[in-house]
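Hey, I'm writing a tutorial for new members on how sequence and structure tokens pair up, and I'd like a real worked example in the thread rather than a made-up one. If someone can provide the structure for the chain below, I'll link this post from the tutorial.
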Amino acid sequence: MDTHRFDAAVVIGRFQPVHNGHLALLQRALTLAPRCVVVLGSAGQARTPKNPFTADERAAMVRLAMPETDRARLDIVPLRDCYDAERWQRQVQRAVARLSGTGIGTGRIALVGHFKDASSEYLRAFDGWTLVEADPVAGVDGTALRDALFAGAPERLAGHAPVSTLQFLQAWSASPHLAPLQQEWRHLRAYRQAWAAAPYPPVFVTVDAVVGCAGHVLLIRRAHAPGRGLYAVPGGFIEARETTWQSALRELEEETHLALPVEQLKQALRGQAVFDHPDRSQRGRTITHAFHFELGPRALPEVRADDDAQSVEWVPLASLCALEDRFHDDHFHMLDHFFGLTRDDDDEAAA
């Protein structure tokens, strides 16, 4: 038996929810090393049909799924998604080095996983770690389990998840979180069904306007699903005869009534970026063009909500990190890109 050939074994996943496939990976990891570092992805996100459970809830599910004697051998670390693959890789390596007591690139680390689809390519990204491929558990899929949960069909969960997970989900279903997520789940299913007959999977193009002023950023609260009530950058879908620039200005005016001349916005433009990660939106493949405007140290312009906005407000930049789990899609990451809200340990060491 190949017990403890490594200093630590690593399992990376979203665990939304914990199922028998995850359990098999964790059990395999604990045969290889005295400790298993469990990396919980998608931490700090708002509750959505894709990510219904918080990092704390998922950590609890992981521990409950394991025998009591093995729970003390688990180190669980939540990590936010990062659409910069190299930056995310560094964050994982630092977390594992810290929890395993090894230096980056010096420990004997096993990475336990299996190749499900293109989303599993991260398993090849960690030079110096030993990839231990595990056989997938047949018939177990996190998306199908979440669909069963939101469809109100708990019987479809039986046999696919540990008893502790089923008990957790039963209790969680009595919470106020289930009903709004079910509503959003139905909305997204209907949205995708409307495009089901297309000869090719549709690719949507959107725009966003990131407007800074006097240490604040202009945000809306979404009025409709998906993401109803969540913070977002003003924006929307591009229209057929618009450029991305024209579309961004139109959406900004429609959603916030920010009354500034076009020439002034041209002078305030500080940059733009394309956000095109395949998983950035639950509506489907959505590529957005974001424009960053900086109005400088002036009085905050008057704004008023309209169109798709439930409300609009100038939010202090210093408050954004505390609001991370209240943002729609990847809009917190968009703000992080332009304003540098989060800092890696490398950045702190260099400061």
